[in-house]
Amino acid sequence: MGQSTTGLPQLDRTKTKIVIKGVFERYQIFKSTIFEEREVSITASYQDRPSGPTNVTSDSTANTAIHNAFFPEYRRQFCREVELAVSQLKPKQREIIELRYLTDDPPKDYEVYDIKLKVPINKDTYAKLRREAFHTLAYSFSAFGIIDISTLIKGRNG
User: Fold this and answer.
1) Is the Cβ–Cβ distance between 147 and 78 less than 8 Å?
2) Strand, helix or coil at 36?
3) What pLDDT does residue 53 have?
């Protein structure tokens, strides 16, 4: 396992990019969809069970209530943590990530670095800043428990 000059393990760039983009996709889904509460089923349903006791009890009303109470809060907390992690980035990195991944209608990369940035930059600088932001976000998301950073360490198969 290679170490960087910061003492932190080196992350695989490709894996990190895929995982961080996945976090932003989930963020977009949570932000753009409405949570639909589950309804309690009062109709009996048949389940084929082996003979004898299964030692499993089911309370669909309780399961539904738990889902309806906790899943919306989970979504809000997830979005807050993503936004907090992004807010801790350096200003230029933060601007790139907010414009590219946190808007309602995310633009393409070339639209961000050519048009949307306050001060347009070239493609290579954009790629470097985004790569650095993803690296930083990987550690932040790991601290929040959003991702497992051990799967991103260079040289590990995960």
Assistant:
1) no
2) coil
3) 60
Q: Are 71 and 29 in contact (CB under 8 A)?
A: no
- Count of other CB atoms within 10 angstroms of residue 67: 14
pTM score, whole prediction: 0.77
Percent of the chain with pLDDT over 70: 73
Q: Is the dihedral of CA 61, 62, 63, 67 positive or negative?
A: positive
Burial 14-34 (b: 16+ CB within 10 A, else e): ebbbebbeebbeebbebeeee
| 11 strand-pairing partners | 153
The pair of three-digit structure tokens given for residue 67, joined into one six-digit string: 């889902």
**Helices 60-87 and 123-144, interaxial angle, to 10°?**
140
Q: How many residues belong to the chain?
A: 158
Residues forming a β-bridge with 3: 9
